[in-house]
Write a structure and sequence with these properties.
Blueprint: E1 19-21, E2 28-30, H1 70-156, E3 161-165, E4 184-186, E5 192-195, E6 228-230
Antiparallel strand pairs: 1-2, 3-5, 3-6, 4-5
């Protein structure tokens, strides 16, 4: 049977957006990008298809189609190979980074452990030195307290010691309370003095003795030789 030639015209409203029809609508080409075409109900959107304007109601029909897809596939194939090569390279870099991260973390843990051991040793040494230092200070302080307690015990045993002239001439001697050391307590008539255990709360005057247990009389002497008999211990007289 002889083949009959049919004048086939394609319908642009059915062509997939990546299919570009010729000006006479008798040939079609597959493009790389979607074209901006109206979205009609007849248009193919999932398959690369296009219909003819007229169909056939009887007989068997076949078409010879000149495909030019290879020219589009080769660039895509090269691009895919490039992408896969880049992907492999990036995966190798990721693997190297993971290995380096593990090594660095292991080295960091090792350094930190050594530092921790060093700090533990330094802490023990410093604590031992600090304890020894405070032991020395505590021993010294306890020794001072013991010495002060001994002095306090001796001072507590002192009795009032009136001053009596040993010469034949009697002198009315009156002590000056503003010069008495804070631990010295004068009698009401200021003619006798007693050493106490604690400092009294007295005014801080320029004449007062603060380092020695001393007290002066209200009046001095301009001539003659004078001496006193004093009852008590650890007594120091000042002219």
């Amino acid at each position: 049977m002889a083949a009959a030639h049919i004048d086939l015209i394609l319908d642009p409203e059915t062509a997939h957006p990546r299919l570009t029809l010729s000006s006479d609508c008798r040939s079609v080409r597959l493009g790389e990008h979607w074209r901006d075409v109206p979205d009609t109900p007849k248009r193919f959107n999932s398959d690369y298809c296009v219909l003819a304007l007229k169909g056939f109601t009887w007989g068997r029909h076949s078409w010879e189609v000149e495909a030019k897809l290879q020219g589009h596939l080769d660039p895509l194939k090269k691009k895919l190979e490039s992408v896969l090569k880049q992907k492999s390279s990036e995966q190798e870099k990721v693997a190297e980074l993971r290995n380096k991260m593990k090594l660095d973390m292991k080295e960091f843990e090792s350094d930190f452990e050594r530092l921790h051991q060093f700090l533990v040793g330094e802490q023990a040494l410093l604590l031992h030195q600090l304890e020894d230092r405070y032991e020395v200070l505590l021993a010294r302080q306890n020794s001072n307290i013991t010495h002060l307690e001994e002095q306090s015990a001796v001072g507590g045993k002192l009795a009032p010691f009136p001053l009596r002239p040993c010469c034949q001439l009697y002198i009315d001697l009156t002590l000056d309370p503003e010069t008495a050391h804070p631990r010295l307590t004068l009698s009401s008539d200021c003619r006798s003095v007693r050493l106490g255990e604690r400092w009294r709360d007295v005014p801080d005057t320029p004449k007062r003795f603060n380092s020695d247990y001393c007290v002066l009389a209200l009046k001095g002497f301009t001539w003659g030789r004078h001496s006193w008999e004093v009852e008590g211990t650890r007594i120091k007289l000042c002219n």
